[in-house]
Amino acid sequence: MATRDPEAKKRLLLDAALREFAAHGIAGARVDQIARAAGVSAGLVYTYFGSKDDLFAAVFDDIVAGTLTSTPITPDDLAEYAGRLFDRYEDRPEVQRFVNWYRLEAASTPQLHPASLASMVEKTRIIQEAQEAGTITRFLPAVDLLGVILQLASVWENATPEYSSLVAGHTRGQRRKVITDSVAALLRA
Amino acid sequence: MATRDPEAKKRLLLDAALREFAAHGIAGARVDQIARAAGVSAGLVYTYFGSKDDLFAAVFDDIVAGTLTSTPITPDDLAEYAGRLFDRYEDRPEVQRFVNWYRLEAASTPQLHPASLASMVEKTRIIQEAQEAGTITRFLPAVDLLGVILQLASVWENATPEYSSLVAGHTRGQRRKVITDSVAALLRA
User: What is this model's ipTM?
Assistant: First the structure.
């Protein structure tokens, strides 16, 4: 685990911080635990990232950049876009948990994350252009269609334990198909 | 605030507990703060409800019962059902926050709440019967259609702050219409 490469250490710290924040939220996360999991000193966390809030922001930026790279929006196939978002949530459940903590705890830190905001603006613009070109339904304004698609992509991750228990027998493929079929139905409206 | 009626005191405690849990989660909520907000002694909380976890369960049961009473499922108009769920979330934002905390913190308390589970089973049965009677689309199995509708009803409550900032100019009526229009589109599939 020991590495002398600063970039490699930062990578280890971001991954450890994502796991710790996903498990315990911002308030509950412990920097010394993150440092231990990454195999570095706690002092190095502050040297690299500043405060715990700054580290949280760095993890957030890293997640947004990773999602943009792994799962770019495809305006010619938004159903499959939702399916690929689902794939990413399934493969990295800690990402969705991290975002859920952020939503709950953001009330105490109301500033918006620039990378996430820019990503939402850009996705809205791409959908709107496709609507103006006539290739996507206009039954909802672009920003609303984006919100509905993002919500449908996380239908399984956002369910309560009680609801989830009813679909415990679903395969991953079944769950994915509910999302892509639902978005496809919306796009036909 | 002072009342000698035990039922009135329990009601004040459940309401105060909902606000405290919605603000701070299960782990972060303080029983003494709940008692103070309700105008009773902390000892009385334990007398009435047992542990903090028991109080959380009592609030959960109270929310489920309240939602079933105020917002019964209407299989002949599921779009409007989703609209009425949205109304309830808007009128009582602390309910959705409470549920979101539960989803995140439930990993440490994996037992399912019987009232919520029974409500999900019943809603699925009602949708399935309407599907068998031919009055609701069968493009999704009943349990999946329920999950998608519940998710769409909370599209605004579950959004990230960054996405929400893009729709800050929406009226409540506009936001409600996005939900009912989306569910209506699914039901035509």
Answer: 0.90
A52 and A81 inside one domain: no
Number of domains in chain B: 2
Chain A positions touching B167 (Cβ under 8 A) are 143-144, 147
Report whether A22 contacts A94 (CB < 8 A): yes
The range of the structural domain enclosing residue A19 comes to 1-62
pLDDT tens digits for A106-141? 765 567 889 999 999 999 999 999 999 999 999 999
- Kindly state the helix (H) or strand (E) to which residue B183 belongs, with its residue range: helix B172-187
Q: What are the structure tokens assigned to A32, written together?
A: 């010394």
Task: Give the dihedral sign, CA B9/B15/B16/B18.
Answer: positive
Task: Name chain A contacts of B155, Cβ cutoff 8 Å.
Answer: 147-148, 151
Name the DSSP class of B157: T
Tokens of A135: 């290739």
- Chains A, B: CB contacts under 8 A, how many? 135
Domain co-membership, A126 together with A183: yes
How far is the alpha carbon of B9 from chain A, nearest alpha carbon, in Å?
29
Strand (E) or helix (H) holding A181: helix A172-187
Q: Under an 8 A CB cutoff, do A162 and B27 touch?
A: no
Question: Domain check: are A161 and A108 in the same one?
Answer: yes
**pLDDT classification of B170: cutoffs 50, 70, 90:** very high
Give the DSSP per-residue string, A79-121.
HHHHHHHHHHHHH-HHHHHHHHHHHHHGGGS-PPPHHHHHHHH
pLDDT in tens, A88-111: 999 998 998 898 888 888 765 567
Same domain for B94 and B136:
yes
Residue A168 is part of a domain; what is its CATH number? 1.10.357.10
A104: which 2 tokens? 């709950």
Any idea how long chain A is?
Answer: 189
CA distance linking residue B26 with residue A128, whole number of Å? 41
**Residue whose structure tokens are 């490699």:** A8
Residue B66 covered by a domain: no
- For residues B72 and B52, give the distance between their C-alpha atoms in angstroms, rounded to a whole number: 29
The CATH number that applies at residue A2 is: 1.10.10.60
Q: Is residue B102 part of a domain?
A: yes
Same domain membership, residue A54 and residue A19: yes
Boundary residue ending a domain (B61, B83, B112): B61
